[in-house]
């Protein structure tokens, strides 16, 4: 080997060792600097992706959307009536709590965000939203849609955040099955890159009496997700010698998602 | 030569910007065109080993900055089996390994036979992604290969490889500007 190549190889190995031994805060700093540097192209790239998707969806579903729009308009009217009733009840509840000197139980607030990018990496099931630290978003906050749990905030940046989807293997959720005593840990499955990914519910009891269609909700245990968020519904149950596992269909259609809500609650 | 080497570094950085405009093809198992990897692999065959290693370091660092996820800190009593992620910096080693693979065809490339290197980019990307998947399986346990994964590996490698002639042409133009010969042995008389 030529001396110059040997020196280059040693320097390279030293550099690789340096990179591999960086702590999480240093990695975070590198990421912040990287995304700051590519911010203009990232924004432009996201805008093009969003426009292309919208255009495709518009042409594909224009009639469907008209039907949906009229249904949504009537739903809005119904919800406004419910909301006014809810506000009256909330006021009444606050007055009663005040009278009884109750402490506020939860501090629940949400931020609405648009999805600007889907699957920006090869292996991880993530997406990016257009809300970040400037709107109060921090790490590991729950992300929901109208239909249920979407995922958690993986990395928040100033004006955008990365969301780890519930379909990723790394996103584990402590859940319970409705109308049953069963609780378990739900997570995505590796290598599910099709449009209808399923989730795996593990650590169920050996004789778990579950049936397809039963809904799965978060337990609120574990310090990440709020309780009683719909995650999905049971597709099938596989009984093992020590425990049972179930396949779960996510409640949210992640391939057809536009707006999400980040829960800013501090009291889980 | 120095100016050409420096231009490959800038080309690699530009590839990171272009990559932001290339979405995943959801209809093809989320496969994508890996511009960054392609530029690195094509440049690797045209430069000497020290420059290739420098390119591998830059590409690996930035790619991991782009892709790495934060660790999840949850109650260990509830989440007893946390799922690990790959460490920041692992891509540097994978890029270097693929760079050495590309340099294996350097003698042919210097003779002007770039077509073999173009084909090898597809093989290198397939190996790169396979190695990445094996690493993920090793860190997380439970090695399972699905059809979806095979489709992702194949389509990504194939789609990316199709663009390699464009990158080689770009490198050829840059080399011409900086008066650097990519095929120094192409015009030499053959030995008897």
Description of the structure:
The complex is a heterodimer of chains A (268) and B (192). Chain A is an alpha+beta fold. Chain A folds into 3 domains: 3-37; 50-105; 108-268, Thrombin, subunit H, CATH 2.40.10. Chain A has 3 helices and 12 strands. In chain A, strands 1-2-5-4-3-12 form a 6-stranded antiparallel beta barrel. Chain A is globular. Chain B has 192 residues and is mainly alpha-helical. Chain B has one domain (2-67, 85-177): Orthogonal Bundle (Arp2/3 complex 21 kDa subunit ARPC3). Chain B is 64% helix and 0% strand. Chain B is built from 8 helices and no strands. Chain B has helices at residues 2-19, 35-44, 49-67, 90-103, 106-110, 114-140, 147-162, 164-177. In chain B, helix 2 (35-44) crosses helix 4 (90-103), helix 2 (35-44) packs across helix 6 (114-140) and helix 2 packs across helix 8. Chain B starts with a helix and ends in a 15-residue tail after the last helix. The mean pLDDT of chain B is 88. Chains A and B meet through helix 1, helix 2, helix 3 and strand 4 of A and helix 1, helix 3, helix 4, helix 6 and helix 7 of B.
Strand order of the largest sheet of chain A: 1-2-5-4-3-12
Classified by CATH, the class of the largest domain in chain A is: Mainly Beta
Major sheet summary line of chain A: 6 strands, antiparallel, barrel
Please report the first level of CATH classification, the CATH class of chain B.
Answer: Mainly Alpha
**Total E-strand runs of chain B:** 0
Shape designation of chain B: elongated
Overall mean confidence score, pLDDT of chain B: 88
Helical fraction of chain B equals 55-70%
Mean pLDDT of chain A: 84
Q: Which second-level CATH architecture of the largest domain in chain A applies?
A: Beta Barrel
Largest interface: A-B, 65 and 63 residues
Portion in beta strands of chain B: under 5%
- CATH fold name of the largest domain in chain A, please? Thrombin, subunit H
Count of separate DSSP helical elements of chain B: 8
Q: Give the CA-based shape of chain A.
A: globular
SSE string of chain A:
HHHEEEEEEEEEEEE
Could you spell the SSE succession of chain B in H and E letters? HHHHHHHH
- Tell me the total number of β-strands of chain A: 12
Please name the fourth-level CATH homologous superfamily of the largest domain in chain A: Rod shape-determining protein MreC, domain 2
Percent helix range of chain A:
25-40%
């Amino acid at each position: 080997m030529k001396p110059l190549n040997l020196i280059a190889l040693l320097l390279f190995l030293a550099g690789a060792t340096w990179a591999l031994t960086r702590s999480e805060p240093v990695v975070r700093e590198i990421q912040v600097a990287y995304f700051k540097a590519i911010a203009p192209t990232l924004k432009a790239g996201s805008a093009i992706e969003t426009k292309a998707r919208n255009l495709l969806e518009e042409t594909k579903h224009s009639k469907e959307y008209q039907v949906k729009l009229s249904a949504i308009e009537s739903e809005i009217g119904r919800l406004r009536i419910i909301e006014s009733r809810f506000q009256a009840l909330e006021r009444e509840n606050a007055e009663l709590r005040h009278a009884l000197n109750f402490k506020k139980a939860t501090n629940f607030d949400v931020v609405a965000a648009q999805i600007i990018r889907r699957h920006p990496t090869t292996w991880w099931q993530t997406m990016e939203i257009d809300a970040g630290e400037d709107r109060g978003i921090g790490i590991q906050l729950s992300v929901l849609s109208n239909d249920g749990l979407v995922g958690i905030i993986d990395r928040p940046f100033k004006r955008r955040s990365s969301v780890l989807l519930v379909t990723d293997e790394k996103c584990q959720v402590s859940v319970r099955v409705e109308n049953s005593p069963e609780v378990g840990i739900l997570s995505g499955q590796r290598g599910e890159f099709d449009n209808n990914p399923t989730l795996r519910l593990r650590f169920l009891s050996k004789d778990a009496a579950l049936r397809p269609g039963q809904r799965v909700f978060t337990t609120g245990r574990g310090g990440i997700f709020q309780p009683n968020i719909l995650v999905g519904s049971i597709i099938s149950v596989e009984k093992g010698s020590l425990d049972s596992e179930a396949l779960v269909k996510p409640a949210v259609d992640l391939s057809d998602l536009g707006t999400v809500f980040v829960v800013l609650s501090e009291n889980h | 030569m120095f100016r050409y080497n420096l231009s490959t570094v800038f080309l690699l950085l530009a590839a990171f910007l272009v990559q932001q405009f290339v979405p995943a093809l959801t209809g093809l198992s989320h496969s994508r065109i890996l511009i960054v990897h392609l530029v690195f692999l094509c440049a690797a065959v045209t430069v000497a080993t020290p420059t290739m290693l420098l390119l591998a370091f830059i590409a690996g660092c930035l790619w991991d900055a782009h892709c790495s996820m934060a660790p999840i800190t949850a109650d260990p009593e509830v989440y007893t089996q946390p799922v690990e992620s790959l460490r920041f910096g692992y891509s540097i080693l994978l890029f270097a390994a693929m760079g050495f693979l590309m340099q294996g065809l350097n003698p042919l490339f210097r003779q002007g036979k770039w077509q073999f290197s173009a084909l090898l980019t597809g093989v290198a990307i397939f190996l790169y992604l396979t190695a990445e998947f094996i690493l993920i399986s090793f860190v997380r346990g439970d090695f399972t290969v699905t059809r979806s994964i095979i489709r992702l590996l194949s389509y990504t490698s194939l789609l990316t490889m199709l663009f390699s002639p464009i990158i080689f042409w770009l490198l050829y133009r840059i080399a011409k500007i900086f008066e650097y010969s990519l095929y120094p042995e192409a015009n030499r008389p053959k030995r008897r």
